[in-house]
């Protein structure tokens, strides 16, 4: 199937067909795992032709094999208007490589204040050492971002919703303001994936995914990706090759396998998370539920306008209590693991403290916060588990 033939397909169908071109799978349903470091050429002339065009076919293992190409092509096909996708060994690797491809000493980056903590660390560490300045901005700024764009601003980085506090950004307004000034926009789109929020169609130049999460879906592979519009894709590819970034074919195979069921899994994550979130919103021990699909959550109207659904990640703010009471709630949970990441089939509970991560805005809450990832378990069982946890919190809170 050519790209033109597939362009009218619904997203669910595209998930099944994307990247499964004959050249990648050779008649097999799933593109096989092609492992390689050295690629052998039949002649010196063929080798020299490969040197001239190393991205046109098999050249060296670091440049990929049909296994990696198939996954990259599939992710590209999920973002109409994209020129291509580069794969990375983690989401953080994708973020750092993208920023290094776009920024130079003396440039300025505008970074959303609700960003994923490792994104902040990249700004305050790696980029600062290279003479790149970062200014953090209010996630609710919308078109007002235009007032922050200066002569040295080269990139505006977005994360919508934020992965701890779930502010939904006005992505089209920010992208339009940046484009008017010739500034590149980069979005961490891990929470929604292209299935729920096609970033490039909303004006974004580069969409980053921590494929570790929902693309893989089984908590057993680390991977990141960056999908870009024409012009930027070429920059990403050059920088990634210079940095030696590559992913293993085995990991690419597992990520591609997870991709095929993304729509089914996201539906289950959304259904379960909404059931749990609505129940939690009614509990006296919970002050607030930070879930963009709930009408009383800040940014809900933007979510309703721009997104076609929700995933399984949200946070709650407890009503009073301290860290020890929060730990009593989490430690006794039977069906929620305690750990980082999310997007797998299993539910997770993580204590989060956003206040120390803010510089442009402040975080004030009625009590400690917990981030929940709702897996694909039956939500009734999860609710019962959380009910027992809230009872422990109540006792510990005093």
UniProtKB/TrEMBL annotation:
Name what cofactor the protein needs. Answer: pyridoxal 5'-phosphate
Q: N6-(pyridoxal phosphate)lysine modification sites?
A: 213
Q: Which GO terms describe its biological process?
A: L-cysteine catabolic process to pyruvate; transsulfuration
The pathway where this protein functions is: Amino-acid biosynthesis; L-methionine biosynthesis via de novo pathway; L-homocysteine from L-cystathionine: step 1/1
Q: Which InterPro entries match?
A: Cys/Met-Metab_PyrdxlP-dep_enz (IPR000277), Cys_b_lyase_bac (IPR006233), Cys_met_metab_PP (IPR054542), PyrdxlP-dep_Trfase (IPR015424), PyrdxlP-dep_Trfase_major (IPR015421), PyrdxlP-dep_Trfase_small (IPR015422)
GO MF annotation, one: pyridoxal phosphate binding
* Gene3D superfamilies (alphabetical): Aspartate Aminotransferase, domain 1, Type I PLP-dependent aspartate aminotransferase-like (Major domain)
The text of the family note is: Belongs to the trans-sulfuration enzymes family.
What protein name applies here? Cystathionine beta-lyase
Which Pfam families has this protein been placed in?
Cys_Met_Meta_PP
Q: Which residues form a coiled coil?
A: none
Per its record, the protein catalyses: an S-substituted L-cysteine + H2O = a thiol + pyruvate + NH4(+); L,L-cystathionine + H2O = L-homocysteine + pyruvate + NH4(+)
What UniProt keywords apply to this chain's record, in alphabetical order? Lyase, Pyridoxal phosphate
